[in-house]
Amino acid sequence: MTAVLRTEDLCKSFGGLKVTQKVNLSLEAGARHALIGPNGAGKTTLINQLTGVLRQSSGSIWLNGEDISHLPPYLRVSRGLARTFQINSLFPKLTPLEAVTATICERDRDSLSVFDRRLFPLTRRRAEIDEAYDLLARLNLADVCSRATHELAYGKQRLLEVALAMAVRPRVLLLDEPAAGVPEGESDEMLAVLAEMPRDISILLIEHDMSLVFRFAERITVLVSGAELVSGTPAEIAADERVQEVYLGKHRG
Q1: What is the per-residue pLDDT across 139-177, written as a single tens digit (0 to 9) for each?
Q2: Are the C-beta atoms of 47 and 21 separated by less than 8 Å?
Q3: Radius of gyration of the chain (CA)
Q4: Within 13 Å, how many C-alpha atoms sit on residue 126's CB side?
Q5: What is the DSSP pairing of strand 26-28 with strand 32-36?
């Protein structure tokens, strides 16, 4: 199968500090791929390079067969690459319905001061509202769609960030620790939502919750000191002695 997202010898250095080292990552269509590794392994730096937040020092990034290595972030989004962040980046005073509707309008290049309610009456955007509500319902957010975002439980806020990323209709979705800070019961809800994602979206998940990783991923890449240690199925990763030594062993007991 042709990879929808791949990197070739991707490197990032800050002075003499090598943060990612010749990373060759490949996501096939419909992938459920997890990226794990110790703190400081370079996982978020890799995501930042994929999305254009950071410019790679060398190497290339390909999306749907196009070299996007030098495209700015907004053009990568328009080509189907979306992400969430370790620390959520939301609009606290907007409701989920307003925020997702605004994102849909922006996606469709109908960005009339969307966050000014005087210029953005939701009643004039019926098709966008319906799409936003359907998306929120799929992510278990319909019952809180009219509450201010800052009033939501943290797990619901994390789900809202996924909804905002989904609203741009991505072909590749990069999830940077979506369960970080989420209570255990709510992380199960996150897993259930991710499991229901349509297969026309390829997902790369960064996560420290190994229970979530091993239940979600069909393939796992382990990053250590900015370089790929090993890639394989969850069973292969769990049985790999090198992984046990540098990472998984620290999560036992």
Answers
A1: 999 999 999 999 999 999 999 999 999 999 999 999 998
A2: no
A3: 19
A4: 0
A5: unpaired
Residue 62 scores a pLDDT above 90: yes
**Between β-strands 202-206 and 172-176, what pairing exists: parallel, antiparallel or unpaired?**
parallel
Looking at the DSSP bridge assignments, the partners of residue 8 are: 60
Q: In whole angstroms, what is the distance from residue 39 CA to residue 58 CA?
A: 23
With a CB cutoff of 8 Å and minimum separation 6, the contacts of 44 are 86, 176, 206
d(CA 31, CA 44): 19
Annotate 123-134 with b (16+ C-beta within 10 A) or e (fewer): eebeebbebbbe
What's the pTM?
A: 0.88
How far, in Å, CA of 248 to CA of 91, rounded? Answer: 36
Q: Which residues pair with 10 in a beta bridge?
A: 23
Distances (CA, A) of 160 to 10, 34, 69, 149: 31, 21, 29, 9
Full DSSP string of 176-234: ESTTTT--HHHHHHHHHHHHTS-TTSEEEEE-S-HHHHHHH-SEEEEEETTEEEEEE-H
* Angle at the Cα of 200 from the Cα atoms of 195 and 205, rounded to 5 degrees: 50
Give the pair of three-digit tokens for residue 214.
């091993």
